[in-house]
Amino acid sequence: MLTSLQNPLVKQIKKLHQTKERRQQQLFLLEGTHLLEAAVTVDRPLAILCYTIAWQTKHSALCEQAHQLAARVELVSADVLRSLATTVEPDGVVAIVERTSTPEPTFSSLGLVLETIQDPGNLGTMIRTAAAAGAEGL
């Protein structure tokens, strides 16, 4: 069980709190049971799976499934998990997943590509504007 906040793995995962590190390492953090369930549902390989004993007890079936997909599994203390997570009240599990590359769109004309939309309310406006401008792809 990992109990030290000075453990090299803990330090490596904490670096992923920064966007620059996530991009450089091509990794991202999955925090919480719901995101892990989604990853397991689509058989997404996990680079690292970290969880507490309390989480394992509550979610034994999901834990078993996640073990099958994880390259590395670590049982961690509640304090370590709190330091790994970016959420205020983590529910006991964090996973590290490799980013997959997104294929480049193959538009030969005008298209609209969106990433990390801050205000979803603007989405309709962007789509209508793209349609008015004659965009062929979204």
TrEMBL record:
**Protein's UniProt keywords contain Methyltransferase:** yes
Q: List GO BP terms, alphabetically.
A: methylation
Q: Which domain of life is it from?
A: Bacteria
Q: Name one Pfam family in it.
A: MRM3-like_sub_bind
Q: Which GO terms describe its molecular function?
A: methyltransferase activity; RNA binding
User: Which keywords does the record carry?
Assistant: Methyltransferase, Transferase
Domain (RNA 2-O ribose methyltransferase substrate binding) ranges:
29-103
Q: Which family does it belong to?
A: Belongs to the class IV-like SAM-binding methyltransferase superfamily. RNA methyltransferase TrmH family.
Q: What is this protein called?
A: FIG011178: rRNA methylase
Q: Which organism is it from?
A: uncultured Leptolyngbya sp
